[in-house]
Amino acid sequence: MSVLVITGTGTEVGKTAVTAGIAALARAEGRRVAVLKPAQTGLLPGEPGDVAEVARLAGDVTTRELARYPDPLAPVTAARRAGMATVHPADVASAVVELDATHDLVLVEGAGGLLVRFDESGSTLADIAWAVNAPVLVVAQAGLGTLNATALTAEALQRRGIESLGVVVGSWPLHPDLASLTNLADLPEAAGGPLLGALPQGVTKLGSVDFLAVAKRSFSPWFGGEFDPETFAAQFAVQ
């Protein structure tokens, strides 16, 4: 795999932290990594966005942002309000091909959830994944409500014939409640794939060295980490 698309079950679920963790682990293995953000919303020109955060946490990675819109809305809505051009799957595919030629791993981080619209024709991150023939990693919340959102995302991927690698919890709470604890067992079924990691809440406050150490513990060996879902779940006693 040289290209991976990272989506969330919604907004603010930890996609950027997960993207940074995977990038950091790949860099630790000596791989050349590029991170592509097709559309960044909610920021003005010059303000640090998601790719800047990935670079801060992961280190020496190539970053690219194709479009930026000031309003914190779906890309198509934000583009319309700003009177700016939208991003099409073909634009993203072209950027991926260019980055893939000079990197070992290209990570494409979506905006919001899988079916958030990028343009007036209704193109979504699912269309982007299809266009670049890349698998998708789903980032989910830990607590109540996550199973439905995760299952809907997995079903949308399956219906479109897009490979889903599995699911990662983007922000594991410091004090997990009953729903979070039981979801460790239920999320793989909802996702139709394995639980491949769980990043602790607040991990983005760390510097790059400490972040890498946490990422090592928080991601599956599939990404170069040490995370084992059974061992992780065994730390918590569910009454």
From TrEMBL:
Subcellular location: Cytoplasm
Binding-site residues, substrate: 41
Keyword ATP-binding: yes
Chief place where the protein resides: cytoplasm
EC category name: ligase
Pathway listed: Cofactor biosynthesis; biotin biosynthesis; biotin from 7,8-diaminononanoate: step 1/2
Reactions catalysed: (7R,8S)-7,8-diammoniononanoate + CO2 + ATP = (4R,5S)-dethiobiotin + ADP + phosphate + 3 H(+)
Cofactor: Mg(2+)
GO molecular function: dethiobiotin synthase activity
Annotated positions binding ATP: 50, 109-112, 170-171, 201
EC numbers: 6.3.3.3
Keyword Endoplasmic reticulum among record annotations: no
Keywords carried by this UniProt record: ATP-binding, Biotin biosynthesis, Cytoplasm, Ligase, Magnesium, Metal-binding, Nucleotide-binding
Record's subunit section: Homodimer.
Family: Belongs to the dethiobiotin synthetase family.
Identification of the protein by name: ATP-dependent dethiobiotin synthetase BioD
Organism: Lentzea indica
